[in-house]
Amino acid sequence: MQPKTLALIDDDAEYSEFLTQHLQEQQGIAVSRFDDSNALLASPEAFSFDFYLVDLMLPGVNGVELIKILRRRTDAGVVVVSGRLGPEVFREVITAGADMYLVKPVQFEQVSLAIAAVQRRVAKPSAADAVWKLDRASGELVVPDGTRIQLSEADRQLLECFAAANGEPVTREALLNKLGREVPDGETDDGLSATIYRLRRRIERATPTLVPLQSKSRVGYVFRAPLQLI
Q1: What is the rounded CA–CA span in Å between residue 153 and residue 180?
Q2: Strands in the chain per DSSP E
Q3: What is the rounded CA–CA span in Å between residue 185 and residue 159?
Q4: First and final CA of the chain: distance in angstroms?
Q5: Sites of the modification 4-aspartylphosphate (predicted)?
Q6: Which of 109, 123, 196, 199 falls 20 to 30 Å from 149 in CA-CA distance?
């Protein structure tokens, strides 16, 4: 079993090029390459990949910190492929949230096997299948672990949109209309990203449960878990 999409974050251009070719041609995985961790984090699809291959010695945010950031936003598989050695490095990487650690030099076939092994785990039904609930009477979001989060009016409007979409992406235009805001022309900032960010942070501060709210490149946003109105 292999993921459909994968982000490869490694500043070794030659290694990345040949590994990408192997994964795409031999495994049928759509690979996006990033030679700088900040470039990944700036991408609209940063937290939407099915899998991540991460080096540790990176320009921008270092590999360990990048893993911690990914773990706050996604439960996708994360495999580290790095030349750094030592038990303390292994401990640091696994504690940060990586699923597996491979030491360079490593054969591409070994990388493929590691990806498949981790993907079997993350592809199983998990917290992403747990039901979130929007309590309109109390104005609270009920997390699957039982935590109740008080919402702002804008939060409630957004979550009603996501509940109605039933797991499908919701366009920026639809969300802005729900909020009663005008849809801007061109590149004008509509403030929606900031509103979504505040909602995510409100949830993240209240519960360790993974927040299934993700951006959808060139479309809008999607709530990747069942969300019921009660």
Answers
A1: 12
A2: 5-9, 30-34, 51-54, 77-82, 100-103, 132-135, 140-142, 148-150, 170-171, 213-216, 220-223, 227-229
A3: 25
A4: 37
A5: 55
A6: 123
| pTM over the 0.70 mark | no
Q: How far apart are CA 149 and CA 142, in angstroms?
A: 6
Q: Are 210 and 122 in contact (CB under 8 A)?
A: no
The pLDDT tens digits for 30-53 are 999 999 999 999 998 899 999 999
- If phi over 0 gives left and psi between -120 and 50 gives alpha, with beta otherwise, what is residue 60? left
- From residue 12, how far is each of 72, 90, 165, 197 by CA, in Å? 26, 21, 41, 32
Element (H, E) at 196: helix 192-206
CB neighbours (10 Å) of residue 150?
Answer: 11
What's the token pair of residue 9? 């974050």
Per-residue pLDDT tens digits for 67-119: 999 988 888 999 999 987 777 888 888 888 899 999 988 999 999 999 998 98
Query: How far is the C-alpha of 139 from the C-alpha of 149, rounded, in Å?
Result: 8
